[in-house]
Amino acid sequence: MSWKPSMNWQYAKQRAQILSQIRAFFLARNVIEVDTPLLSHATVTDPHLDAFVTHFNYSQASHCDEPIALYAQTSPEFAMKRLLASGYGCCYQICKAFRHEQHGRYHNPEFTMLEWYRVGFDHFKLMDEVAALMSLILGCQQIERISYQALFIRELAIDPLTTDKAELIRLITSRNKLSDWLEQEECIDTLLQFIMAELIEPTIGTDIPCFVYDFPASQASLAKISKQDPRVAERFECYFKGIELANGFHELIDVEQQKLRFEQDNEIRAQLGKPKHDLDNNFISALAHGLPACAGVALGIDRLVMLALSASEIDQVITFPIENA
Q: Which of 276, 279, 247 shows the shortest CA–CA distance to 260?
C-alpha cells in the first residue's frame, strides 16, 4: 500500500477552485456558511444508515469509568435545523460526513458533503438552485424534471403508487434480477428501491441531470407529505451520468409526525436485526420550538468533483481513501 495520495496535484488545485466557486455562489445569494460539530450525542434512526461511534470518558453526565457514546455525523442535517429553529437564516455547510458503508467507486466512508437550507423555499424552488449550481460547476445548461411515478411508468410501465409485490417480482424476474431475498421481501419500498437502483438509475441522467421528485410517502424521510397528493412526499433526488448526486426535501416541520417516523424507523431497524437508536432530543426540542418553513438539500462534493473532472472513481478526487487513511 502506497503512502502517497490518490489525488494528484492538478486535481487538488481544480478541486480547490470548485470549492471557491461554491462559496462564491452562496455569497452572491446571501446564504451564510456555518459550522457544526462532527460528533453528536445521538444519531439517525434511518434503517439504511449506520454511523461510526466512539466513546467519551469526560462527560459531565458520567464518571470517568463510564464512557458515553458519541456518533460521527452521517449528515449535518439535525444540527443545521437546530440553527434554523434558533433564528438563523438561509445557511450552508461544507463538511465531512461519515457513513459505515462499503468503500467503492462512488463512496468513501469519510466524504465531503455540501448541505444547505433555504427559508421560504419549497422543493421545486430548491431544485432550481441546485440546477444553477450545477450549471456553474458542470456547465449543464439543461435539466430534466420528472416525478417518481411518471418515471416508473415511462421506464417500466408500472405505477409505483398502486403496484403490489406480485407485479414487482414479475418485473424483476423478467429482467433476470431475481434472487432469494427479493422473493422473501415483503416491503414494497425495498423492492421499489431495488428496481430504482438496478433498472432505472443506470438509464437516466446520461446526457443532462435528471431531477426525480415526489417520492412515495413511505419514503418521505424528513420531507413533507404533499397536500395535493398524500401518496407522495415533497422530496427529490438528482442523478447525472450514473451518479446519485443530491437528495433534497421540502422539510417536515411537524414534531409529532417526525417523532412517529423515527419510531417507525426503529421498528424497521429491529426487524432487520439492527439496534434501535435513541431519538435526538436536541433535534426534537428544536422542532417543538419551531422550524421555519424551508427546503434543504445534501449534495456530495466528492461526486460533484468527479463529474467536473471526468474522474472515473472517487479515490481520484480525495487525498487518502479509507484503505490508505
A: 279
C-beta of residue 226 within 8 angstroms of C-beta of residue 232 = yes
Residue 18 lies in a domain: yes
Selection from 292, 250, 208 nearest residue 124 by Cα? 250
Report residue 14 CA to chain centroid gap. 25
What is the rounded end-to-end Cα distance, in angstroms, of the chain? 11
Output the pTM of the full model.
Answer: 0.95
Query: Has residue 64 got a pLDDT over 70?
Result: no
The Cα–Cα gap between 162 and 154 comes to: 15
Q: Is the pLDDT of residue 283 over 90?
A: yes
- The count of domains in the chain is 1
Inside any domain, residue 231? yes
Q: Is residue 103 part of a domain?
A: yes
Q: How far apart are CA 276 and CA 265, in angstroms?
A: 8
CATH code (residue 235):
3.30.930.10
DSSP-derived letter for residue 226 is: P
Contact criterion met (CB below 8 Å) for 231 and 244: no
**Which cell is 296 given?**
434543504
- Domain around 266: 9-143+208-324
Q: What is the 3-state secondary structure (H, E, C) of 20-58?
A: HHHHHHHHHCCCEECCCCCEECCCCCCCCCCCCEEEECC
Percent of the chain past pLDDT 90, that is, above it, reads 94
Whether the pLDDT of residue 228 is over 80: the answer is yes
> In this structure, is residue 241 part of a structural domain?
yes
